[in-house]
Amino acid sequence: MVSRHIPRQHPCIICGFNEPLSEPAAEDLNARGADTHFVVCVDDDPVGTCMLHEDHHPWGFGVLGYSICPDHWGNGYATDAVDCLAQYAFQELRLNKLGADCYATNPASARVLEKVGFQQEGRRRDHAFVNGDYVDLLEYGLLADNWAP
Fold it and tell me: Where in the numbering of this chain does the N-acetyltransferase domain appear (predicted)?
């Protein structure tokens, strides 16, 4: 059996599948270039998800995303998850850069990225339609050389 995980005490981040993948299933996902998805857990209870999408070309770039259940906001779980994904991306996958986006109307999400070391690199005006309004999308980046484990 094959399962992907990042060891972490709090929160634990485990592969977002109900059971370990069989070898053929893992090979199929790899062949299709599937994103890596993780479940964010606290005391074995799921509180959110995070993912890493690798661009499969020589640039060494990946994009990450995360979502924590509102009942668990403010506990540092998103920051820990993003930091774990950065560790995985830079140390295991040897990527050179990570990117992430957040809505300008979500300063808490921007703060998560900034705490891990991401820097704002751009702003796409009226790029997303959220709750009936157009909002700006903030683009963030983190270079492997600027990430501190």
Answer: 1-141
